[in-house]
Specification:
heterodimer; A: 267 residues; alpha+beta; Uridine Diphospho-n-acetylenolpyruvylglucosamine Reductase, domain 2; Uridine Diphospho-n-acetylenolpyruvylglucosamine Reductase, domain 3; Enolase-like, domain 1; 3 domains; five-stranded antiparallel sheet; 12 strands; 38% helix; 24% strand; globular; B: 150 residues; Ubiquitin-like (UB roll); DNA polymerase, domain 1; 2 domains; 5 strands; 36% helix; binds flavin-adenine dinucleotide
Chain lengths: 267, 150
């Protein structure tokens, strides 16, 4: 990878202006994925002095600075405590400690990577994103928007809740990308079932969630129906990691297990 | 551009290009214990510590590190020798290519985790690949090293 210039922005306005000047200008997160995916960068824009890497708690939210590393995410007490720690579990399963010490949550979200293990639990937790220009939008909106508006992600906001959570990554080895990953959240009677690395980007199974949310008592029959519905409504495709049919089958199984776990809370 | 780094607590001044990675800066300055492996953040042999944290030097731009403390295996010599002793007892190395990075990661783990179990050791070291040993002897050696309070 070739980088011509390195620019330490004076403030966020300055960083955004520089970013918008050229499609070859890039904001630096941890720089881990960039190194492997971009050939040429005209100007690499430093953000680390302008965007927080802290995790803080307010009464209602956990606020994660976009420069927070995956390792810091995986060990923070609030991330471990809420939603049964599914975000910490997902972070922990990404590569080794060295990569997790540089890769950031900001670079992960901005990259909208189809293989991402973090986007799936973040989507299931209905998190919100605070951008410099656009203000606060939901991750769901952000992932669905086709156009990548140039903006700077400042924070990720996760609502504090007593919700139950489940995450599972299906991969061939500890260092490999997911063949598929599944996150399930139950917040009171509200269910959120999400699947990532299909190998398309993480998505919510809306019909399955609707069925679960409208069923008073959730018994085994509803669980099985919802899991099948989710696997049917989401699209899967094949690549060298796995076939579409295989992905669909394991998705149904892990959604079933996820639902059983968040309902019975049996670990 | 000029960057000041503390490499093993010695102040070093490097003139670097915007796109120069720490791995190249260190190797060009003869820190050849920092190895070049996959050069794509995956194998772990280029590991160094930045402010005590293990990172892949192949993917960190030197220019971002003004004033930071960098540790290579030469900076933890006593601990590395102790670990090497236990590696020797278990026959836990062959070519030795991954040993400096492994030693640095184990050292960081020792500072970060209290009484790690075999499972947590394995999880911490998952990004440091070794193509000779099959890991088992290394894990036993690391457990013995951690038990050694001398
Ligand atoms: C070898 C390797 C293996 C990996 N394996 C996995 C895996 O198995 N599972 C998984 O989920 N992930 C995996 N990842 C991806 C990793 O988890 C991160 O998602 C990825 O590295 C991006 O984070 P970063 O900080 O490195 O971003 P960078 O590479 O710095 O940036 C990525 C993109 O985001 C933009 N960006 C960065 N910060 C911001 C911001 N604040 N606002 C707006 N835009 C921004 C950049 O301009 C760039 O376009 C892997 C990464 C590597 C290098």
């Amino acid at each position: 990878m070739e980088i011509k210039n390195y620019y330490v922005a004076k403030d966020l306005d300055d960083a955004l202006q520089k970013f918008m000047l050229s499609s070859d200008n890039h904001l630096l997160g941890g720089g881990a994925w960039m190194k492997n995916s971009l050939r040429h960068i005209d100007t690499a824009i430093e953000l680390s002095h302008l965007v927080s890497n802290d995790i803080t708690e307010t009464k209602e939210f956990i606020e994660i600075g976009a420069m927070c590393t995956l390792h810091d995410l995986s060990i923070h007490p609030a991330i471990i405590k809420y939603y049964d720690g599914i975000l910490a579990q997902a972070s922990k399963q990404i590569m080794g400690i060295t990569v997790r010490n540089i890769a950031t949550i900001g670079g992960t979200i901005a990259g909208k990577y189809a293989f991402s293990d973090l986007l799936t639990p973040l989507l299931a937790m209905n998190c919100q994103l605070m951008f410099y220009r656009q203000g606060i939008i939901t991750l769901e909106e952000y992932l669905q928007s086709a156009i990548r508006e140039k903006d700077i992600l400042l924070k990720v906001l996760i609502k504090k809740s007593t919700a139950k959570g489940y995450f599972h990554k299906v991969a061939k080895t500890a260092l490999d990308f997911s063949i598929v990953n599944v996150a399930v959240v139950k917040d009171n009677q509200n269910f959120s079932v999400c699947v990532g690395a299909r190998p398309q980007i993480a998505a919510k199974a809306f019909k399955a969630c609707e069925l679960l949310n409208s069923s008073g008592v959730i018994n085994q029959e509803i669980i099985e129906k919802a899991a099948k519905m989710a696997a049917d409504e989401l699209t899967f495709s094949s690549n060298f990691r796995g076939q579409a049919e295989y992905r669909k089958m394991v998705t149904e199984t892990y959604i079933k297990r996820g639902l059983q776990e968040v309902i019975t809370n049996a670990r | 551009m000029l960057v000041n780094l503390y490499v093993n607590n010695v102040l070093k001044k490097y003139h670097v290009q915007a796109g120069e990675f720490l791995l190249d800066t260190l190797r060009n300055d003869n820190y050849i214990s920092v190895r070049r492996g996959c050069d794509s953040t995956s194998c772990g042999v280029c590991t160094v510590l930045i402010e005590g944290k293990p990172v892949p030097s192949c993917s960190v731009l030197t220019i971002r590190l003004e004033g930071k403390h960098i540790t290579t295996v030469e900076g933890i010599q006593e601990e590395a020798e102790k670990l090497a002793h236990y590696f020797g007892l278990e026959g836990a190395d062959q070519c030795g290519f991954c040993n400096p990075s492994m030693a640095l990661t184990v050292y960081a783990m020792k500072n970060e985790l209290k009484n790690p179990t075999l499972e947590t050791i394995k999880a911490y070291l998952v990004g440091n690949l070794c193509r000779c040993t099959g890991y088992q002897a290394q894990h036993i050696a690391i457990l013995h090293y951690l038990e050694d309070r001398s």
